[in-house]
Design brief:
Blueprint: E1 5-6, H1 16-24, H2 44-61, E2 67-72, H3 75-87, E3 92-97, H4 100-109, E4 114-120, E5 144-147, E6 149-150, E7 155-156, E8 168-171, E9 188-192, E10 203-208, H5 226-231, H6 241-256, H7 259-280, E11 285-286, E12 297-301, H8 305-317, E13 320-321, E14 332-335, H9 342-358
Parallel strand pairs: 1-13, 3-4, 3-5, 5-8, 8-9
Antiparallel strand pairs: 2-10, 6-7, 9-10, 11-12, 12-14
Helix pairs in contact: 1-6, 2-6, 3-4, 7-9
The structure holds pyridoxal-5'-phosphate.
The site of pyridoxal-5'-phosphate (PLP) has 12 residues, from helix 3.
Length: 360
């Protein structure tokens, strides 16, 4: 067996310890005589798994009691529709467009009501976060929407927008559990788990209880109503049971690692190694305005598409995989999520130094 350093943006690297534990429990989960994949989601043993996972997430994020935690399906993309269908009471919402995912969410919301694009960074290929201190928030906006960490472009809000009292909704798919958050500043926090938490197929929605109502857009399917899942503690129908089990294991791993403060420190150290190298390099350069740099996704270029391709190819041969940038931007991107060890980043930088010398 040999494992590579996987810099994929998602699905992405998971803690080796978690994968090993899951392998050990594959045939017989804690004396149940079966795999978690094979058990009823209504069984007592599975109830223990999902309840423990929720409690561990609540502990990690210090989620207040007036917020529900939902484990849903359909990926982050399904939330692009669920959010307007459930929250657009006035049929108005304000969107800040800082990348492809925010843009898709904005376009989807436009199907259900008036979705205003109140700020954007598209003018400079989404390489920065716009000033959000005094935006033209609509008086009747049901919510203000952001994508907090832009996976493709490598930007992150270092300060949340001033929503002027409106409910903040945030897609945190690629920065979920990477640092502490103040949940009370949000109405909804959601993310697909395949970036930083677990296997694709699970999306976690943390939603303030007063936002969960029966007053949804006419025709909203039962399965797309938050109330359906909140009332049933995420067990309205068969949940993505195995995926939730792995998420639970990652939550336990995060607790063991010292929680989100410790993760933030670990992530800052890792990102600094890479950004410091990029800032001093003659060959490589980062593409994001320094103050808006993500700790999770680090895009960089040489400025020469052929050299970029050569780098990606040679890196792969050396065991550093999935470094190719998103097809919409080109270049390279190293995603260095929670489970990427510091050693992986150090070795990548050593490899980049060597490549720089050889291609000077
Ligand atoms: C990956 C990603 C998505 C899309 O996730 P799916 O689960 O594939 O729908 C949405 N938003 C962000 C920020 C992402 O990184």
């Amino acid at each position: 067996m040999s494992r590579v350093y996987n810099f994929s943006a998602g699905p992405a690297v998971l803690p080796e310890e978690v994968l090993k534990a899951a392998a050990e429990e594959m045939l017989d989960y804690q004396g149940s005589g079966m795999s978690v994949m094979e058990m009823s989601h209504r069984s007592k043993v599975y109830d223990g798994i999902i309840k423990t996972a929720e409690q561990d997430l609540r502990d990690l994020m210090k989620i207040p009691d007036n917020y529900k935690v939902l484990f849903l399906q359909g990926g982050a993309s399904q939330q692009f529709a669920m959010i307007p269908m459930n929250l657009m009471k006035n049929k108005v919402a304000d969107y800040i467009v800082t990348g492809q995912w925010a843009k898709k969410a904005w376009q989807e919301a436009s199907k259900y009501g008036k979705a205003n694009k109140i700020a954007s960074s598209e003018d400079k290929t989404f390489s920065y976060i716009p000033d959000c201190s005094d935006l033209p928030i609509s008086d009747d906006a049901d919510y203000v929407y952001i994508c907090e960490n832009n996976t493709i472009y490598g930007t992150k809000y270092k300060e949340l927008p001033n929503t002027k009292g409106k409910t903040l909704v945030a897609d945190v798919s690629s920065c979920f559990l990477s640092e502490p958050v103040d949940v009370e500043k949000y109405g909804v926090i959601y993310g697909g788990v395949q970036k930083n938490i677990g296997p694709a197929g699970v999306v976690i929605v943390i939603i303030r209880e007063d936002l969960i109502t029966e007053d949804v857009l006419e025709g909203t399917p039962t399965m797309l109503q938050y109330k359906t899942h909140a009332d049933a503690d995420s067990l309205y129908n068969t949940p993505p049971a195995y995926g939730i089990y792995i998420c639970g294991k990652v939550f336990q791993w995060l607790k063991k690692m010292g929680g989100l403060e410790a993760m933030k420190k670990h992530n800052e150290e890792k990102a600094k190694i890479l950004y410091d190298f990029l800032d001093g390099s003659k060959l490589f350069k980062g593409t994001v305005v320094p103050k808006d740099r993500s700790l999770m996704n680090v895009p960089f270029i040489t400025g020469d598409a052929e050299l970029d391709a050569k780098f990606v190819k040679e890196a792969e041969a050396a065991g550093f995989v999935n470094l190719k940038g998103h097809r919409s931007v080109g270049g390279m991107r190293a995603s260095i999520y929670n489970a990427m060890p510091k050693e992986g980043v150090e070795k990548l930088v050593d490899f980049m130094k060597k490549f720089e010398e050889e291609n000077a």
